[in-house]
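::Encoded backbone::
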Amino acid sequence: MRLNFLKISIQILFLFTVSNVFAQSLTALKAEYLTNPIGLDNPNPRFTWQMNDARQGAQQTAYRILVDVDSTSLVNQKAVMWNTGWIKSDGNLASFSGKPLKPFTKYFWRIDVINGSKKTLSKIASFEMGMMNMANWQGAWISDNENIKLKPAPYFRSTFNSAKKVKSARAYIATGGLYELSINGKKIGNHRMDPMYTRFDRRTLYVTYDVTQEINQGKNAIGVLLGNGWYNHQSTAVWYFDRAPWRNRPAFCLDVRITYEDGTTETIKSGKDWKTALSPIVFNSIYTAEHYDARMEKPGWNTANFDDKEWKAVMYRSAPSKNIVAQALHPIRNVEEISTKMIKKINDTTYLFDLGRNISGVSKIKIDGPAGTVVRLKHGERLYANGRLDISNIDAHYRPTDNTDPFQTDILILSGKGEQSFMPHFNYKGFQYVEITTSAPIKLKKEDLVGYFMHSDVPVSGDIKSSESIINKIYYATNNSYLSNLFGYPTDCPQREKNGWTGDAQIAIETGLYGFDGITIYEKWLADHRDEQQPNGVLPSIIPTDGWGYEWGNGPDWTSTIAIIPWNIYLFYGDKKLLADCYDNIKKYVNHIDETYPTGLTTWGLGDWIPVKSKSPVELTSTCYYYADVIILTKAAKILGKEADFQKYTALAKRIKDAFNAKYLNKATGIYASGVQTEMSVPLYWKIVPEESIQLVAENLAKRVEADGFHLDVGLLGTKAILNALSENGYSDVAYKVAAQKTYPSWGWWMENGATTLYENWPIDAKSDISMNHIMFGEIGAWLYKSPGGIKPDESQPGFKHVILDPHIMEGLDSFEASHVGPFGKIISAWKKTTKGIQYDITIPANSTATISLSLVRGSDIFVNGRANNIERINLVAGKYVIERRYKL
């Protein structure tokens, strides 16, 4: 079954006609990986760009960056803040190193590029600095009280006069908890759940909004609604977030900085002149749900002429932390509206709505009924046999103290003033079904409820198209689960926990980065890691945390996120900043393991979580991850010029490898431990297998998988390794049989049973650990890019500066296409079987190159345009190509 690789030279046929007319421009200009961002704190923002040039061999030979406060100056090629001069380079990543940037200042940057034909391409974009320093805040931290048990969410309001014509206005708001900001009755922005969750007592995020259009000449009103979020966790569950050391009643600090046409500035700020009252949100929990009493609504509460004489004075509060920094990342939004696919009337007071797919997010209902009618909207993933909603699979870790806070159940009390709509402000859930019960009969129709798929709104950067429908379904479900678990940090599930489990995230990192532009989320989350790391190097298993997870669930198989994620960001983006930011943390973590387990073998970790049937030694899997961490540390040391560390940790890696193989590898038979799938695939994937044993170990793994009927027998760690270990060592046909399997246990088994997301457990009728929206088995998404798609980064030229194209053409697939938008542009790798043989279509973005390595079964006759070939690999420069290969088996 093993594929013997043949490197073949191929005649290239161009997809386009040679012409002197090509679209040549610069595109995707970003500062800090965001388009025209405002409110940055980094005094040395990073600039990136792409060449849009369809010509074969298109390449940048030099670039120049100009930065100034005046875009007109840039048009005239003048720059006061920074002028790099012409730099001979084909790179597209540069960090600002000009005159010190000033807070609250908008800058324009111009990128000039000379391409291979000596043509200069130019484009201008902008970025704007935010507070930059805590000393620049003018507002006070305010709240309504300090009672953490008070349930209703508070309103805050203030009015001000703007007598002059406004040139620009920015709102800066930092919060302990969650907020919605409004000016003159209009909600500002389309973000949800701001600010992102952090370790509040160590780092607090603020968000910047452009509110120029919202400020009227004359009287204005500002409104703030605060929610609890993770800051004031009132629900009780096994992680004890209700006991968090930072817990307090939500509070906020706000500056609205107005610049007038005459050049003067004014700051409207939070302070003792503000007023507060309780809102109709009578309870809100990010973990459970939201309760809303429409009878308590205060129409116009956030408008200028509202009568607030009955409102109370606010109180001063200290800031949650001494580290308030900009939230510079893609925000959470209601990304997609999903209509109800089916409605079932159970009785006069009970309806079941089915969205047709599992999502993270909220429902929105339109409803009319008598005042005081109680409407309960219960959200869940599965049904009982009688058609009623079953949430027993997702409320397993909830520990309610009474019945006033039902799990994933919004409660709405109607005002009786006509049709109203309700959507939670400060909560999200995981669900497919919504069961609505009312205290009085109400008629509902399918159109009365919609769902909103809510997640961090990261740009899509990849796609998979296959001739096999089960593969397409698996890819769709994998992406749904990945996005359902991205809320400013990667989570395990959107219903039962919402925790930042490190193990799930390290498994899914490549799947996420192939499919989505997620660098801003991961940079934020690794800052959370640095906040949480103990002085001795230990990290908790969930991040952020209230303190839970330092004693259980952590270890190198989980908390290797500190090394694995920065390394993958480096591979995918070619940016070493995160690797540098985390270098000392990786080193501290590795040193702790080395000191605690001097033999080189470690038993610290959870092991192969939720396996199908076979259990592998924790020492085997954790030592492989420990080895991976050390290898990443050695590579980082080399990249960052730390030669002494490179030598030290290279020696440590050898000691670990030798100790591991001495204990677990039978060199004569090529078997690790007892030879089950995880025990064989994890060492292969993390490349701890001695070079001379790789072929035999891989052969034994393939035999084991065949003996298992081409079904999975792995848990979380084995899932990361199994398909890759096979494909990377000549058994991609075996890997595909596993990937496309439709019977239990397999990904396809879930799809055959109606899954639209990935599950937490292989049996769909498991008695525990059966969330139906987990990403922890999601490595298959990345594998589709790497094996049948064949798109891989080259660590010697990271960020897809040089693309490795190594597609595996598999039995059972007639066609396959993978595309990924990397830092230089869109890469396409597409093959299809034709009557002539195989056609391979490739797009390589401008300013990058690729190496193609095509694999065939040895012994087949290979014909390229009618001629037999058995030669070397082929190197390509930017452009579009069709490669035709004809063969007979």
Observations:
- The chain has 15 helices and 44 strands.
- The radius of gyration is 29 Å.
- The CA atoms of residues 545 and 830 lie 43 Å apart.
